[in-house]
């Protein structure tokens, strides 16, 4: 994908070990045919700054609904993550950079609100992931460049999700250390978690207070705001 997003501001070069690891992970994501609906590229020539395009289409939503029905019929103990990507469908698990398997899914009994998944259909959301020199010991920062009205996305576009928070105890008690970043996570698991977040907001401590209130109290207005973001994303996706 071409680089329409401009150059990021992270320090040039970075640590050699982080650069080598990111190079491998970037190549894997570009060549992995299991990934659908996600395009990755570099900002300029920096391996520490990635540009992302999340594309959400009807085919993915239809397959998601079918898999949800099949999952309930079989009584599976794990719910599939939103089917905007076929990665989980084909693998069932993801692997970190050391080859260990990581389960990605929903706790037993949970069902994703399909209406919100459908509200995102047609979206072409641009984002940037900036990795620190200390990666993978510390997490990157992900920021949507396309307007995103969501309880867990700041008005600046920065994503607020546990997996991207530093590996330490939360002084406010909202998150445990186990929910936060760990070096076993990868760009792939980050994007899977963010996609899950988009369709299943956490409104306990919203980054966008207005979005959190509408999500809880006025689903109709919330959906209207989300659909506007989708339309805006379509207009700006290829700028």
What features would you describe in this structure?
Residues 55-235 form the UBC core domain. There is one protein chain. This protein has 239 residues and is α+β, with helices and mostly antiparallel strands. The two termini are 13 Å apart. Strand 1 (38-43) and strand 2 (46-55) form a beta hairpin. It has a single domain (16-236), classed as Ubiquitin Conjugating Enzyme. The chain has helices spanning 16-31, 58-74, 87-91, 114-119, 187-199, 209-217, 219-236; strands spanning 38-43, 46-55, 93-95, 101-103, 124-130, 141-144. The protein has a four-stranded antiparallel beta sheet. The relative contact order is 0.16.
Set down the secondary structure blueprint.
Layout (H helix, E strand, L loop, with lengths): L15 H16 L6 E6 L2 E10 L2 H17 L12 H5 L1 E3 L5 E3 L10 H6 L4 E7 L10 E4 L42 H13 L9 H9 L1 H18 L3
Helix pairs in contact: 6-7
Summarize the structure.
With about 240 residues, the protein is an alpha+beta fold.
